[in-house]
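Batch manifest, entry 17 of 40.
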Amino acid sequence: KFASTKIKSKDFKVALDTYNELLDLNSKDAYSYKKRADCKYELGDQKGAVADYKRAITIDSKYNKDELITSRIKSYYENNQSASRKEYEAYREKCKNFNEYGICTDTRIR
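Output type: structure tokens
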């Protein structure tokens, strides 16, 4: 609750630190990865946010249907074509199934 309150008040740095602590205690908490990604995104760390969003999806596939997450991942790859193009192409080559947002739905690929 503390971290959620900090996000609502736009205190993303404190919320980020709290989610870091929560993930130190439970590295399989998809919700905390999602919320930490939200904080990273708001703080300008899109690459870190995308990594956490993908981790949340790996742990709990319900996040694969979250339009905000999928649009942020897609936007990151589209806007960072030079540095991330190779990473994105490797990701696309490994995956056989994509959702309507261009996000891999193969649970074994992340």
